[in-house]
Amino acid sequence: MKAIISTLIFIIISTTGFAQQASVEDRIFGLQLGLTSGISAYYEHKLNHSFALRTEVFTTWGYSKSLGFEINPAIALEPKYYYNLKKRKEKGKNIAKNSGNYLSLRSMYWKDPFYEDSRKHRMYLLPMWGMRRTIGEHFSYEFAAGGAYEIVPKGKDELGLSIDFRIGYTF
After folding, report:
1. pTM of the full predicted structure?
2. Tell me, what CATH number does 73's domain have?
3. What is the DSSP letter of 88?
4. Which UniProt keywords apply (predicted)?
5. What backbone phi and psi angles, to 5 degrees, belong to 70?
6. Which domain holds residue 82?
7. What is the Cβ-side half-sphere exposure of residue 140, based on CA atoms within 13 angstroms?
């Protein structure tokens, strides 16, 4: 897993010099409803012309045989590298509100307030590929997929997959 994360970081850093002119937005704030991520409020801040840092507060939801349906509060920090903004702009496509494809390394933490079990205290690292598109002035949709490395305190870490589809409103 460390090799995958290192390779992803190397690719992101080594290609930042190629994108010029087109740039991510300075600041974006919005609300989203996700297929697996629940309801979220996020803030994306420009780091340079192709990088943005997303901070997010959201709910996770899911179902398991042992616990039933559950909803949990969570936080995330996600540096995003938008790699095709220049190409989209040259083709006359919309890049407003960071409409483009991206690579990211999402770090996420959540703790179920109703359980004391160590499995209810979770941290994740998620190397992701995603795409974000804006519809009209304020609406957007976002799809992301990638790996998931779950860090379980006092337990066995796990690998998995992460897929999410979100619709949202950007202010």
Report:
1. 0.81
2. 2.40.160
3. H
4. Signal
5. -140, 145
6. 2-14+27-170
7. 25
Q: Is residue 20 part of a domain?
A: no
Flag whether 151 is in a domain: yes
pLDDT in tens, 92-139: 999 999 999 999 999 999 876 666 554 567 899 999 999 999 999 999
> Three-state SS for 24?
coil
Q: Are 97 and 170 in contact (CB under 8 A)?
A: yes
Give the length of the chain: 171
Residue 6 resides in a domain:
yes
Q: Is residue 22 one of the residues assigned to a domain?
A: no
**For 26, phi and psi rounded to 5 degrees?**
-60, -45
As for how many domains the chain has, the answer is: 1
DSSP secondary structure string for all residues of 39-57 = EEEEEEEESSSSEEEEEEE
